[in-house]
Amino acid sequence: MPDxxxxxxxxxxxxxxxxxxxxxxxxxxxxxxxxxxPSPALAGPRLEVETLEMTDPAQLAALRERLxxxxxxLLFVNAAINRGNQPIGEVPTEVFAEVMVTNALSPLRTLEAxxxxxxxxxxxxIMSSEQGSVSRNTEDGYELxxxxxxxxxxxxxxxxxxxxxxxxxxxLIDPGHNRTELGGPDAPLTPEESIPAVVDVLEQQAGAxxxxxxxxxxxxxxx
Length: 223
Fold this sequence. Notes:
This protein has 223 residues and is an alpha/beta fold. It has a single domain (6-215), classed as Rossmann fold, CATH 3.40.50.720. It has 5 helices and 7 strands; from the N terminus they run E-H-E-E-H-E-H-E-H-E-H-E. The protein has helices spanning 15-26, 57-66, 93-114, 143-162, 191-205, and strands at residues 6-10, 30-35, 47-51, 72-77, 118-127, 169-174, 211-215. The chain is globular, with a radius of gyration of 17 Å.
């Protein structure tokens, strides 16, 4: 029998990341998942847990050193915060910086630090959002969150351009509006509903190469 595929999931303590790591393990993947602190729900025979605060470059470098002998078919980075629904002119500078560092800079910094752990034909993916689509920004609200996801998408596009010849598949994934701490209690989806479809997309796109911005059904999301 072939060896099981391996995945490194960054940001799996709760919500979408937790369900993603669990679903991959359920399908037979061997999963290394990172959390900022204890996560009792993240347990199982195919799961191992590492500690990481991804906004801390020193912790990221330490994780890279600990995993230096590993190789993964999938690296998936999941991280986002939302600091309220204010017009951009009312957002304090320190809040703007916090959201941009967490939602845009840190995922790409993580990808840069860990990409050499991914096999040449593997996949690097980041959890994005339809909210980052500039062309679909036609409703008021959540201006800073939208801007941070648009910045994430632009940075990922720059990364993909710079690394176009590395042979890896690059994905931005919109999982839909989910009932999580970030998505709120009135969202139409649960992670248990959306994430199996996301994993279907990850498995279907393996080896495709290039960069795509896709929803949980595998359909392109407009930039």
